[in-house]
Amino acid sequence: MGTLVGHVAPGFGFLIIGLWHLFNHIKLHVQNPNSYISPPWFPTSKYKYLELFIIMLASTASISMELIIGPDRHTPFDPDGTIPSNHLHNFEHSSISMTFFVYAAFAIILDKIENQSKFALTQLLASIAFGQQLLLFHLHSADHMGPEGQYHLLLQIVIFISLSTTLLGIPMQKNFLVSFVRSLSIFFQGLWLMVMGFMLWTPELISKGCFMNNEEGHKVVRCTDHESLHRAVSLVNILFSWFLIGVTVFGVSFYLILTKLFGGNKVRYFSLGNEEEEERENVEKFNDDVESQKGSLVGNPKSFIHVGKKTFSPIDIER
C-alpha cells in the first residue's frame, strides 16, 4: 500500500462505495421520509449483491497485491518462514482487506436467512471492519513520521467517524442523518487516500524542503530540517481543512439536487362538490341549532338569563 497506486486504488473503491451509499440513502429518504429505514448495503436492479461482490473482489485483489504480487520474491516470508520487518505493513494492510471481505461474505449469507437480527449483525460486521482499519492504521508498524504520519493521523479521524456512525446505525435505523454522515465519511476516506497517494508519491507535489527517501524497500517523504517538517505538516492540515469544506459543500449540494429530482411537490387535491356539500350541511346544522334555541326561549318564559355571577328571571328584568 506504500505506493501511489496502493493508495489511489483502494481510495477509489472507498470513494465509489461512499458515493453509492450517499446517493441511495438520500433517494430512499426523499421518497419515503416517514418510513425510512437505513439498510447496511444496497442491491442493484440486475445483480442484487453487486456491491458486496465488488467489495469481495477488491479485497481479494488487495490481499494478492500485498502478499503475493507486491513482494520481490512474490512471498512476504523469509526463506526460514519468518516475516521480515519490511513486510509487516503488508500483513497489516491485507488484514484490513480480509476483514472487509468477511463483512461482505457474511452480509450475503445473512441476507439469505429470515432473521430479525440480520440487519444488526451486518452493521456489526461493518463496524468491526472499520474498527480493524482504525486499529491497524493507529498501530502501524511503518514509521509514519513527518508528512506521511500527519496524513495518516487525519485519515484515522475520518475512519473513526465511519466506525461511530456505523455503530450508531444499529439502534438508530430510522435516523437519516447517521446514514448520511456515514456515507459521506466513507466517501471522504476514499478521497483522502487518493490525495495521500498523489501528494506523497509525486515528487512535484512534495512540500518544499522535503524529499523522497528510499527506506526498507519503499519510498518515504523526509524533510531536511525541523522548519521544513513543521511547514509540511501545517500544509497537510490546511489541505485537509479545505477538503473537509469541499466534501461538506458537495454532500449538502448533492442532497439538495437529489431532493429536487426525486422529491417533487406533492399536491393535495380536494373535491369541490364534497366541500360545498359539507359546507351546506354545516349551515343547515347551524340554522337548526338557532331555531331550537328560539323554541326553548318561547316555550320557557321563566327561563333565566345569566349575567356575570348574578342570575335574573324575566320578572326581575321587568321591574
From TrEMBL:
Origin species: Cicer arietinum
Taxonomic lineage from the root: Eukaryota, Viridiplantae, Streptophyta, Embryophyta, Tracheophyta
Localization, UniProt: Membrane
First-listed, main subcellular location of the protein, grouped into a coarse class: membrane
Membrane topology note: Multi-pass membrane protein
PANTHER family: PROTEINASE INHIBITOR I4, SERPIN (DUF716) (PTHR46285:SF3), PROTEINASE INHIBITOR I4, SERPIN (DUF716)-RELATED (PTHR46285)
Transmembrane intervals: 6-23, 49-71, 91-110, 119-139, 151-172, 184-202, 238-258
KW Transmembrane helix (keyword) present: yes
Protein name per UniProt: Transmembrane protein 45A-like
Keywords on record: Membrane, Transmembrane, Transmembrane helix
One Gene Ontology CC term in the entry: membrane
Annotated family: Belongs to the TMEM45 family.
Family annotation (InterPro entries): DUF716
